[in-house]
Design a protein that fits this description.
Blueprint lengths: L3 E2 L8 H8 L3 H7 L2 H7 L6 E2 L6 E10 L5 H9 L5 E5 L11 H9 L4 E8 L2 H7 L3 E6 L10 E3 L3 E3 L2 E3 L4 E5 L2 E5 L1 H26 L4 H4 L2 H8 L13
Helix pairs in contact: 2-3, 2-7
Length: 236
Amino acid sequence: MQSVVYTRIPRLDPALIERASRINVADLHEGLGAVVGRQCLMQPQMRALFPAARICGQAITSFNFPGDNLMLHAAFRVAAPGDILVLTNGGSPQGALWGEIASYYSRIRKLGGAVIDGAMRDSAQITEMAFPVFASCISVSYPGKRGPGAVNVPVVVSGVTVNPGDLIVGDADGVMAIPPAHVEAAVGNAEARMAKEAEIKRRLDEGQTLYDVAGMKSLFETAGIVEIDAIWSDPR
């Protein structure tokens, strides 16, 4: 198999990325709607290494042969400041794809973070340096450096197809890969949702009930919910 590295990705407007960086994953997820939002959301095992970890940047993808991380170093050669390295070996725990030195070097290069579908290690050291890493597995398993693999090709990461240049956003709730064509709508809808929730909070602070503010009455009626002013075991 011939290993290959594509050196360029389609670039988004930096101002749009900056807007997305101020939005939680949950809001972006809902901003994409029921279908696309689920298609972009990685499986729950893709978790932040530490709760404060946040990422928002474009994907530099790297497919690695199980037990090997040579193509990580190929990805480093083409990544730009702010980019998110998205690595996969198919989710295998064999051969840690990421560790302390990779995080240290990424911080020097001003990269935006890493998403690892496979094993990472050196958890305590990476947490201490506060470099944002998301991974599906932690294992000290030693990686080889032989290849083969590829950089900046479509990859499947934790159940989601990630194309080079997709916007990767992650926080304590999870990770999403948003195709460029959907980013503007996701951001705009999420900002509108945030404004709506701010208004809900304002009304709750005034003493209104969540039942009234969230319009639960009509939803209860549609669902056929019946309220009975009694204890369930009382004879009727």
